[in-house]
């Protein structure tokens, strides 16, 4: 039986790059970008008429690249393509996990997780309301937050201040519930503007500072920006090293350093910062 991964042994997931299953020639290119996770998409990126051929193209690619490791976003459990998607993915060695869109029902999550590690996307009010039971399904690997679809489901005005207030509450729920369930940190949604690199940096910095492991990417050129932004700032790294060096020199549990009280939570934070650098 599949079990939750331990949060003490995190898997790097700064970037999750999506590529259409209907363009198998792009899968190798996506892997070559250095993205931590590559998701071959059978859902939104593939037109309804092209879904059977995209599924077959994915199977052929996997047969030729058995040593590759990809994730696959299948069509939702309420669609006519879902069962065939799951059946195909279950027997493909290169598929390391299944990304389930609009995850909300325990029954659907359990059925998918019986075949491969499950990466549920929380992108509806129903998914948020059912987070606890979903996270108790054996085989759930990590949560993803689908901010664009969630905004539509909640009737939010895209990219407005009000929408961000609401989405930040969803982010809080996903973060807290993941941690309480012993899962690794979740991934935040994508930044939809491909040429807006400064906006992407702001998006990633917020996700990083909130405690997310990474974000989704919709274009290869976003990957390097995401990785650079997810890394701790130079000043943060310098602070962490100074604090830990001072702690070693002090030899006590709590002490004053540069006008600030340093105790166990501060030292834990410093270790987290350096762990992000080393990983």
Structure description:
Helix 3 links the parallel strand 3 (70-73) and strand 4. This protein has two domains: 15-230, TIM Barrel, CATH 3.20.20.60; 234-278, no CATH class. The longest helix has 20 residues, at 161-180. The two termini are 28 Å apart. Residues 1-10 have low confidence and may be disordered. The chain is built from twelve helices and ten strands. Helix 9 crosses helix 10 (221-230) and helix 11 crosses helix 12. The strands form two sheets. It has an eight-stranded parallel beta sheet. A two-stranded antiparallel sheet has the order 9-10. The chain is α/β, with parallel strands linked by helices and 279 residues long.
* CATH fold node name of the largest domain: TIM Barrel
Low-confidence stretches: 1-10
- How many DSSP helices? 12
Kindly provide the radius of gyration, computed on alpha-carbon positions and rounded to a whole number of angstroms. 20 Å
Strand order of the largest sheet: 6-5-4-3-2-1-8-7
What is the mean pLDDT? 92
């Amino acid at each position: 039986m599949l079990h939750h991964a331990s949060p003490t042994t995190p898997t790097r997931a700064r970037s999750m790059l999506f590529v259409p299953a209907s363009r198998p020639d792009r899968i190798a290119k996506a892997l070559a970008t250095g993205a931590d996770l590559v998701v071959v998409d059978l859902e939104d990126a593939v037109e309804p008429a092209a879904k059977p051929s995209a599924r077959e193209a994915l199977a052929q690619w996997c047969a030729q690249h058995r040593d590759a490791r990809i994730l696959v976003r299948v069509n939702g459990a309420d669609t006519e393509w879902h069962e065939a998607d799951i059946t195909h993915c279950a027997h493909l060695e290169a598929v390391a996990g299944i990304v389930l869109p609009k995850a909300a029902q325990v029954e659907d999550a359990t059925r998918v997780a019986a075949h491969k590690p499950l990466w549920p996307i929380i992108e509806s009010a129903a998914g948020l309301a059912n987070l606890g039971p979903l996270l108790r399904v054996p085989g759930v690997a990590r949560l993803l937050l689908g901010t664009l679809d969630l905004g539509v489901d909640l009737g939010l005005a895209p990219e407005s201040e009000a929408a961000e207030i609401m989405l930040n509450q969803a982010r809080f729920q996903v973060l807290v519930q993941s941690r309480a369930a012993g899962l690794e940190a979740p991934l935040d949604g994508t930044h939809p503007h491909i040429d807006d690199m400064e906006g992407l940096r702001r998006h990633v910095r917020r996700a990083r500072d909130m405690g997310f492991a990474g974000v989704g990417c919709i274009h290869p050129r976003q990957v390097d920006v995401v990785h650079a932004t997810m890394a701790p700032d130079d000043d943060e790294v310098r602070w962490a090293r100074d604090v830990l060096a001072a702690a070693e020199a002090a030899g006590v549990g709590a002490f004053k350093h540069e006008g600030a009280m340093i105790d166990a939570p501060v030292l834990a934070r410093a270790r987290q910062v350096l762990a992000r650098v080393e990983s």
